[in-house]
Amino acid sequence: MIRRHDFNSAWWGEEVGIIDDPGLFELKADALAAALRPFAWAELVQPLSRLPARRRLAEAGFFHTDTQVRFRLDLGRVRPSPSAAELNIERADVAPFGVAPKEMRPFLHERFYALPGADAARVTARYAHWSAQLIRDHPRTCLRFLRDGGVQGWFLAQPEGSTVNLALAMLAAEAVTSGYDVYARAASEFATLGFRVGWASFSVGNTAVQNIYASLGARFVEPRECWMWIRDPLVADQQSPHEKGPHS
Questions:
Q1: pLDDT tens per residue, the chain (248 residues)?
Q2: Which of 48, 128, 183, 243 sits CB 3.0–4.6 Å from 101 for a disulfide?
Q3: Alpha-helix runs per DSSP H in 24-178
Q4: How far is Cα 57 from Cα 128, in angstroms, rounded to an integer?
Q5: Neighbours of 170 (CB within 10 A)
Q6: Is the pTM of this model over 0.70?
């Protein structure tokens, strides 16, 4: 009922779990504790309609870290402004590029700050790793935006049939272009590439992004709540060597 989250485990340097089946919380307390024991931390992300009783989550040691707003966007209806049309686009399959942590603006609305020791540098590193993975696996839908030769931002997406997961959008640290222009131009470019619908989610605390997608005509769907469990370090210290994970 809990599987290893490979990406977060690699980023964090310890075993991290992800819970796909809310039925986990129907287990007795000792069985639930045993299922969580191999992990440094674990996460449950579920639509509101599938979320277990919040009281039960709290009893199991989970706490609420974020609500993710989800949406779908008709890409063909987005009309970039004249200033957005002035942006130059590079696709990673035509002009390969990477994204270094120092080029990014800080990620301010991230639930991972709830983790002990997760500062801005460590959270930014997570998104640098994710950027590299998206660019490697889906270069055709990974875009870099430039104005007057200066990098303004990136929009890295993952194709899924006729739709595209608008996975990661970022402004460059030195950008002078608005986020709205980058998002609008990306949506238009994805439509040109043949995708009809874009979809993604973002933190409810990120009001700026919510306003951008609302202005682009997004239709919002059922949100998801994010709940996290973090292993008590005192309990971890009491584990015998064979109980500890490979990164302990």
A1: 899 999 999 999 999 999 999 999 999 999 999 999 999 999 999 999 999 999 999 999 999 999 999 999 999 999 999 999 889 999 999 999 999 999 999 899 999 999 999 999 999 999 999 999 999 999 999 999 999 999 999 999 999 999 999 999 999 999 999 999 999 999 999 999 999 999 999 999 999 999 999 999 999 999 999 999 999 875 544 454 444 443 33
A2: 128
A3: 29-36, 54-59, 82-85, 120-137
A4: 31
A5: 20
A6: yes
Q: Give the amino acid at 186.
A: A
Distance of alpha carbon 33 from alpha carbon 1, whole angstroms = 12
Short-list 225, 204, 207, 223, CA closest to 215: 207
At CA 40, angle to CA 113 and CA 101, rounded to 5? 40
**Kind plus residue range of the DSSP H or E element containing 146:** strand 142-147
Rounded-to-integer distance, Cα 36 and Cα 42, Å: 7
